[in-house]
Design a protein that fits this description.
alpha+beta; BamC_C; six-stranded antiparallel sheet; TATA-Binding Protein; flat; 333 residues; Outer membrane protein assembly factor BamC
């Protein structure tokens, strides 16, 4: 034991001495952090001819009585660069005469991209309000655009709307559907060309992220999805969600706002909830074959420009109804 302690003592002493020998002031690699204290200015150069001058470029001149501080710097702001490893879906959607651009990203990210589109085009921005999500654009001497950027139904999604109006506020202008479609297609192309490379955000437009069109709440043990949309758009959104989830309806009553769906008995080997199709990438799953009786009722109720989505189980399977509603909410867009 005494021998072990002696070895430990000599090892500690050797290690301490080695550290001093390597990094100490007289070591092989001394520290350099205080070397700037020893720096001295070099003497002025002696030129061979007095005609030769050395120009001095002082980037930080002192501000005194003889030099006025520059109040405005005429330097353009750097263009924002976006980068992202994921992909973002960009679509032009239409419901009747209503058209909008759908983008799978937050409005605070879509705002600077849309603004950049108009800044780099021949059009000019008359006014922009990132908190309201509105831009007024001068298209020509006769026509102005109003661009509205809103949060979409889906989490982290954006909807961009365009409307035209006359420069003369006293003159009303009918909306040219084909003209609006052409302009929205240009916006889609601009977003799509950089869809995989933007992830920046605008702090001024952060409030747009909180104005979601879909909310979930519970009333009397009944879970409800509330869409801040009219019936037509809500019906279209639910139809798209059911199609995306391969959930086929065996009966539809649009006037009453009802979808009736049932699960496939033939596909029960893939699980009781095979109709929900949680694994859409499994191409080996059997397609949905409907039974005669509907097992679930999806109900849409509209009031005050809002639409509620409810799911009822006709067989008393309340937990299954909750799962179906959750799946619909996941696929809404």
């Amino acid at each position: 034991m005494k021998c072990y302690k002696n070895y430990l003592f000599f090892f500690t002493l050797f290690f301490s001495a080695s550290c001093s020998y390597i990094t100490g002031p007289e070591g092989l690699f001394p520290e350099k952090k205080d070397d700037f204290f020893e720096e001295r200015l070099s003497p002025d150069l002696k030129l061979s001819s007095p005609d030769v001058l050395i120009n001095k470029d002082d980037h930080y001149p002192p501000i005194n009585q003889d030099i006025n501080a520059v109040s405005v710097q005429d330097i353009p702001a750097p263009r924002q660069i976006f980068s992202s490893g994921g992909s973002n879906e960009v679509q032009l959607r239409r419901l009747g005469e209503l058209m909008w651009v759908y983008i799978e990203t937050l409005p605070s990210t879509s705002w600077p991209i849309a603004k950049n589109y108009f800044e780099t085009s021949s059009m000019s921005i008359i006014e922009s309000d990132p908190d309201a999500g509105i831009m007024l654009i001068k298209f020509s001497d006769l026509i102005n655009f109003k661009i509205t950027i809103e949060h979409g139904i889906k989490e982290a999604s954006t909807e961009i709307f365009l409307s035209q109006y006359s420069n003369d506020e006293e003159v009303s202008m009918d909306q040219d559907v084909q003209f609006i479609q052409d302009e929205l297609e240009k916006i889609v192309e601009f977003f799509a060309s950089s869809a995989a490379s933007f992830s920046g955000t605008s702090l001024a437009a952060q409030n747009l992220n909180d104005r979601k069109k879909a909310k979930i709440f519970n009333i009397n043990d009944q879970t409800i999805i509330e869409l801040n949309l009219g019936f037509d758009r809500a019906w279209s959104a639910v139809t798209r969600a059911l199609k995306a989830g391969n959930i086929t309806s065996n009966d539809i009553d649009r006037d009453s706002g009802i979808f009736l769906v049932s699960y496939s008995v033939e596909s029960e080997s893939s699980g009781w909830f095979s109709f929900l199709n949680f694994n859409n990438d499994d191409k080996g799953n059997d397609s949905l074959l409907l039974g005669e009786a509907a097992e679930f009722k999806i109900l849409l109720e509209s009031k005050n420009d809002k639409t509620n989505i409810l799911v009822e189980s006709l067989d008393g399977e309340e937990e299954a109804a909750e799962d179906l509603l959750s799946k619909i909410n996941e696929l809404l867009s």
